[in-house]
Amino acid sequence: MPPFDPSKLQVKNKMPAAVQITAEQILRDAVEWQTKEVKTTKQTIADEEELNFYKAQKRKDFEDTLRRQRHHIGTWIKYAVWEANQQEFRRARSIFERALLVDPNNPSLWLRYIETEMKNKNINSARNLFDRVVCLLPRIDQFWFKYAHFEELLGNYAGARSIYERWMEWNPEDKAWMLYIKFEERCGEVDRCRSIFNRYIENRPSCMSFLKLVKFEEKYKKTSRARSAFVKCVEVLDPELLDEDFFIKFANFEQRHNNIEGANSVYEQGLKLLDKSKSEKLYDSFISFQKQFKNEYIDDLISVKKRNEYEDDIALNPDNYDTWFNYIKLEESILENMLKTCSDDKLGAQKDRIVQVYERAIANLPKDNNRKLWRRYSYLWIFYAFFSELQLDSKERAEEIYLKSLQILPRDFSKIYIYLSQLYLRMGDLKKMRSVMGNAIGLCKKEKIFETYSDIELKLGNIDRCRIIFTKYVEIYPYNYKSWLAYINFELLLNEINRVRKLCEYAIEMEQMNNPEAIWNKYISIEKNYSYSNVIALYKKLLQKTQHIKIYKEYSKYEYENGNNENGREVIEEGINLYKDSSVERSKLLYHLVDMEKKYGNEQTVQNAKKRLPKKILRKRKLENDQEVDDIIYVFPDDKTNTKILENALKWKKQQK
Fold this sequence. Notes:
This protein is mostly helical. The chain is built from 33 helices and 2 strands. Helix 7 packs antiparallel against helix 8, helix 14 (260-273) runs antiparallel to helix 15 and helix 23 (447-460) packs antiparallel against helix 24 (463-476).
């Protein structure tokens, strides 16, 4: 017979089939076949001979699988469990033992072996297996626990106890010790529980173990034993092993038993032993404890403790101004609490203490020229002056402090001048106030000085003095737009429009002005409220200095808003002609024209504007490294050359399709 040759086949009927098969239909059929459950054939065993044949065949399958995958423990377990289900226990044990020869340290294998024996009530076999596995794998707690629980279920409490004792010789985890204690507790042996707890604490000393002992003693209402457990924990453990949660629970224990003094001493001991970074939660709990059981004795203890801490920190680093601020804040908070209850003598003593702290603090000048450090140091003088004026009720003392600080602090710290001038203002001494601000202008020359001084004189109604101050401000900062704006806003407040115009004219003529846009915007916004022609003149003048697209847009918008649509169009056309070679700016102006026509024009002008909008064409460009980059080209209908390019591009695109 000649071989089959596919090339000689000829299709007789080349018409399309009546029913077309799609990829979707093929996938749907495949999924439907997958979801159908494969029905296994049911095998009915009629007699013992067929049963033996079935068993032999099953054993052969298992043995063949094990020869291929000897180290697959799951197959061994299935094989052994199947034999056990057939009541063939000798065979099942043999299979388990063969599996243990393959992997003797597999916990899952031992567990299924033991569970199989227990399930079939082979007590002694299970006990023997437990003995073997706890000797082989003593660090796996699961076998110890199951062994002990197994004996407990059988009522063999002595055997269970001996198992626990063997387990404890390995010094297991905390959970194992607690399981032993719970077992003795179920047996009603409370004294044995205490002896186990003692061994547990000796072998695994920690806050957790001591707290469990406390909980146990509290359960049996042995308060003294629970307290001694807390105390022993503090004595035995190193301070590094103690944590704030332990002291909080100790203090709460004392509170529950109405020992407030004891709770207070616990909090103090905890705050003393623990680092500050590790005792934030303890300190918050101490504060809440204070609020609940507050008395003068506790307040004094806390104050003394914190005061000593600050003194120690200052002795180590006297230039740490944060510590000085915290120290002062502590003393002032004590004074605030004393105002309600204490006598005048005690209040006076506390005020003297605060003054001493301030004097000691300001005596520690910064040792380098770090400006940030000097600024921090200056606030000590400021707060000292505030305290003298408000708490000591002595404006004269506050004046002395400010004047002394001016001799020590750098001259360009404006806050001291400002606070001193405000103090003189409260004292009613305008002459000294003006003298201080005059010195500040001469020495400090900060912008804040001019603003504060002018604000004070304005509130006093001295308009001429304000003008002198603003004139000086502009003289010192001629190229700072803020000085000019401050002067302009002042004259605008007085409705002196002619002065405002002159100031604006002077300001816009400054070639070296920083941020001149702010001056122009202010000038134009002012003129919009007064004169249309002046606004137009300003826009034209501004366009002579700079032809930014933003100016054309604002100029044209102003014309449209005032009903001069034709003028607005001319402004936009001027910008379009200027940016004829810049496609992006030109397109922005055309879109702006469309927006203006939509708001202020009619349908015809809107359509005319839209016809001029550019079309974007994506063009690929090759770089030197042969990579292609997409460039966007704007094609404007107004440009005839570009229109031809667009038409050719569209024709080419149609041909490609």
